[in-house]
Amino acid sequence: MSNVSVHASKLSSIATSKTDIIVIPLFAGEDLSATASAVSKATGDVLQRAMDIGDASAKLGKVASMIGDTRIARVLAIGCGERSAFDLDAQLTVTGAIAKALAGSNVKAATVIAEVVSDDADQLERFLEFLSRDVVMSCYHYTATLGTPKSGPSLKKLSVAAGDMLPMTRAKKALTTGQSIGNGANLTRELVNLPGNVCTPSYLAKEGRALGRRFDTISVNVLDEKKMADLGMGSLLSVGHGSDEPSKLIVMKYAGGPAKQAPYCLVGKGITFDTGGISLKPPKGMESMKFDMGGAGSVFGVMQVVAELGLNVNVIGVVAAAENMPSGRATKPGDVVTSMSGKTIEILNTDAEGRLVLCDALTYVERFKPKEVVDIATLTGAIIMSLGYEASGLFANDDGLAEALGNAGTASGDEAWRLPINKRYDRQLNSKYADMQNIGTGTAGSITAACFLARFAEKYKWAHLDVAGTAFQSMQKGATGRPVPLLVEYLRQKSGR
Ligand code: BES
Ligand code: MN
Ligand code: ZN
Q: Which run of H or of E encompasses 267?
C-alpha cells in the first residue's frame, strides 16, 4: 500500500525550505514564473540551461529531471503544452506524468509548484485533486504475498504550492480529497490483486466488517448461505455449489444523509475466482480470473472514500461473493434454478456466472427502496472487444442516470461509454425450459448480459458498469482501481460536495 502524506504549502516557503525535488510545470511560449526562475537561479540555472539545450520543454507530458544543489536536490520540469489547449485530458496527462516520475525516482519529499497551472480557482482546485490522487495511486505497490517484500516507491511527502489564486483551505481540501480517492482506489487494487486462495468470499466479508469497525457511519451485515437460501437466492447460490468456499452476501450501509433519504445502492460482482465451472475455461490465462471480483473491490474502495469524505448521502454497498468451481456438486449446463425474484433461469453456460449472482443481489436491494442502483461487474470478455481497455461499458434503464454516470466518468478521467439494451437483444434470452436462459446466441455478449440483469432491475433506476476491460489490465500490470474515481464523482455530485 502507499502512505504518502499530502500538504498544501506556501510559495514563499519554497525559497527557504529543503526538498528532494521541485516540480515545475512549463507552458508553451511562456516565460518562467517568478517562482520557477527563482528555483532555477538557486540551482545554478539548471532549468534555464536544460530548456536552452532542449532537454526540458513545454511539450505536453514531457518530463525532464535535473540535478539541483544541496537545498533543492533535483528539479523536474513537466511540459503542459499550449495553455489554450490545457483541457481536462491535458491536465490528467500532466498529473499522471508527474506521479509516474515521482514514483519512479528515489525521492522522499516532493514539492510541486502548481500556481502556474491556472488562474482559475476552480480549475486549480481540480488539478490539485487529480495530482494528489495520481501521486497516491502511483505510489501503491503490492507486497501482500511476497516472502521477501520488494521495496516500492520511496515518496513519503507531497507538498503542493497553489499560490494566491486558491485559498489555503480549499487547496488543502482538494489535496485531501484526491488523497482519499487515491487511497480508495488503492484499497480496491489490493483486494483485486490478491490471489484467489487468499481473497475468498469469507475474506471479503472480513474486509466489509473491518470497514464497519473503522467508520461509525458504516454498518455491515453479512448474509451466509443459510440466510440466502431462506431468501430464495437459488441463482446466486447455484454459482458456489461446486466450491468448498461458502458464498456471502455482504451488505455495507453508509449513513451520511438524512435517515429518511433513499439510498444509492452499489452492487458488486464478487467472484473471487472464476474457473468457468463445469463450462471450464481453457488453462491459458485462467490465473487472471482472480480479478473477477473487481466490481466488488470497487464497492469497498468507494465505501471507504465516501465515509472518509463524509458525503451527505446514504449509500448501500452490496457485494455478491462466490467462487465458481467445477465439482461433483457443481451446477451443470441445462440445470434450471429459481432466483429470489421467482423467475427461473436455465443455466446453459456455467461460465456466465456473474449475472447469476448479481440478479439475486439486484432483487435483494429492492427492500431499500433505492434512489438509484449501479452494479459494477467484470461481466463479459466481449466488452473488451467493444471498448478495449479504455472505457467501461455503461448500460442503463434510465437516461438521466446514464448521463450522470457518463459525465462523472469524463470529469474524473475514468471514462464509461453507453451501449444499448432493448427488446431486440433481450429476446436472445428466451428459453424453452425456464423464464430465461443465462446466455444469448453469441453475438453482442455484453449487451445480452446487461439485458439479463435489466430483467431484475425493473423496479428502480438502474445502471450497469461492465468493467472487465478497465478494472485490471494484465497479470503484470495488475488492478487499476477503476471505476472508483467515476463512482466517487457520481456520489459527490449527488451530495453536492
Ligand atoms: N469473468 C468473465 C468475464 C471476463 C472475461 C472478464 C475475460 C475479464 C476477462 C465472465 O464470468 C465470463 O466468463 N463471461 C463469459 C460469458 C459467456 C460464457 C457468455 C465470456 O465473456 O466469455
Ligand atoms: Mn465466467
Ligand atoms: Zn466471471
A: strand 264-274
Residues with CB under 6 Å of ligand 1 are: 274, 292, 349, 351-354, 378, 380-382, 439, 445, 468
Given ligand 1 and candidates 275, 351, 389, which is best to mutate, with the most ligand atoms within 8 Å of its CB? 351
- Residue burial 62-84, b: 16+ Cβ < 10 Å; e: rest: bbbbbebeeebbbbbbbbbbebe
Q: At what angle do helices 484-495 and 294-309 cross, to 10 degrees?
A: 40
Options 3.40.630.10, 3.10.290.10, 3.40.640.10, 3.40.50.450; CATH of 190-495 = 3.40.630.10
Strands 344-347 vs 436-437: parallel, antiparallel or unpaired = parallel
User: Left, alpha or beta for 334 (phi > 0: left; psi -120 to 50: alpha)?
Assistant: left
Q: Burial level of 348, CB count in 10 A (0-12/13-18/19+)?
A: middle
Give me 309's grid cell.
469524505
Residue 355 annotated to the active site: yes
d(CA 176, CA 23): 19
- Which of the ligands is closest to the CA of residue 269? 3
Active-site entry in 281, 343, 371, 459:
281
pLDDT of residue 43: 92
Q: Where are the alpha helices (DSSP H) in 215-293?
A: 225-231, 234-240
Provide Rg for the chain, Cα atoms.
24
3-state SS assignment for residue 7: strand
Torsion of CA 65, 14, 85, 54, to 10 degrees: -30
Q: How far is the CA of 324 from the centre of ligand 2 (A)?
A: 8
Query: How far is the centre of ligand 2, averaged over its atoms, from the C-alpha of 134 (Å)?
Result: 32
Domain ranges of the chain: 5-163, 190-495
Nearest to 316 by CA among 258, 368, 240, 384: 368
Q: Which ligand neighbours the alpha carbon of 381 most closely? A: 1
| Nearest ligand to the CA atom of 277 | 2
pLDDT at 157 over 70: yes
User: Which atom number of ligand 1 is nearest to the Cα of residue 472?
Assistant: 8
**pLDDT tens string 447-470:** 999 999 999 999 999 999 999 999
Q: Looking up cell 520511496, which residue turns up?
A: 154
> What is the grid cell recorded at 38?
527563482
Chain-centroid distance of CA 313 in Å reads 19
Query: Could you give the CA distance from residue 321 to residue 195 in angstroms, rounded to a whole number?
Result: 15
Q: What is the pLDDT of residues 185-243, one digit of tens each?
A: 999 999 999 999 999 999 999 999 999 999 999 999 999 999 999 999 999 999 999 99
Question: Class assignment of domain 5-163?
Answer: alpha beta
Question: How do beta strands 392-396 and 157-161 pair?
Answer: unpaired
Residue 2 pLDDT grade (very low, low, confident, very high; cuts 50, 70, 90): low
For the question of residue 281 being annotated catalytic, the response is yes
